[in-house]
Amino acid sequence: MTEKFESPRDGVWAHPYQLVSGQTQQHQLGHTRLWITLLDLEWQIREQSSKQGTDPENWYESTGHTLPSADVKVQRFVRTNDDGVLCFVPAMANLPTVIRPFQPLTIPAGARCVLYVGTTLWMKVCVGEARTELAEFPLAPPSMTWLGRNTCEGELCYASSTYGRLALEAVPKRPWRAVTPVTIINEREKPLLLERFSLPTPLLAIYRNERGQLWTSGVTVKCETDMSSASLHIDHAVVAEAGKCEAIAPAREKLARGRRLVRAVDNIFG
Question: The whole model's pTM is what?
Fold first, then answer.
């Protein structure tokens, strides 16, 4: 077909889009291109990952009647009382994510620091007023890493493609990443060398501020004196630096008891 898509607009998270049968909505976000087609009896989703090496800054959305080439695999979903309503919900990674400061950082005994981390999101494709989930995709192909004292003790994690920064203004703001403030408190009697850190991404809820930027709950890690473990606390809300925010996506997982988690230091800092 020769009909072109309409002029692209900025995409919006958790926003209801109305389609009519025969229309296809196209999205370019992060390292992912997505085509969502509405037919009389089904939804069709086509997804294609692009090469990394660039850092896309925008999310473009447009609607038309053109499909990609037949080489792009299609997923089909039966429709059930969705009224042609489509929305996209962000989600944090389903595994912890290992992040690194821009350069190794030493936290003196009795000191603390705050690192601001931008982590890549997953996109959930949802339909209808109830936001029934059809599928989800990572917005950048995830790479895996192991964090622990050896190959037997530790856990499998995702490796972040971005660095933790001490200055918030140094963190690139992207619509396909969420910013997490991580407070690290060193109560030990010796310095703590921070080379990498396991962020508990499945435990973090997602919020949107008035500028459309995404933030998560804050995380506080306390390394106590003469202990081989560290306590990890998930904050109830976002930090003041985020501005006025609204919650748009819950955490994938919840702590069984309260919001404090004690873990081996090696499983947090590697």
Answer: 0.88
Question: Using an 8 Å Cβ cutoff, are 112 and 175 in contact?
Answer: no
What DSSP designation does 10 have? E
Are 243 and 211 within 8 A, CB to CB? yes
> Is the pLDDT confidence value at 263 over 70?
no
Residue 202 tokens, joined: 């499945």
Give the separation between CA 245 and CA 249, rounded to whole angstroms.
12
Q: CA 77, 80, 86, 90 torsion: positive or negative?
A: negative
Q: What share of the chain is helix, strand, coil (3-state, %, to 5)?
A: 5, 50, 45
Average pLDDT over every residue of 44-60:
85
Contact 178, 140 (CB under 8 A): no
pLDDT at 227 over 70: no
Task: Using DSSP bridges, classify how beta strands 177-186 and 219-223 pair: parallel, antiparallel or unpaired.
Answer: parallel
Q: How far is CA 137 from the centre of its chain?
A: 11
Q: What pLDDT is stored for residue 3 in this prediction? A: 46
The token pair at 238 is: 């976002």
Where does residue 62 rank: exposed (0-12), middle (13-18), buried (19+ CB within 10 A)?
A: middle
Residue with tokens 């006025």: 244
Q: In what order do the strands lie in the sheet with 97-101?
A: 143-147, 155-164, 97-101, 197-199
DSSP 110: T
Closest CA to 268 of 235, 236, 220, 225: 220
Average pLDDT, the chain: 87
Contact 127, 134 (CB under 8 A): yes
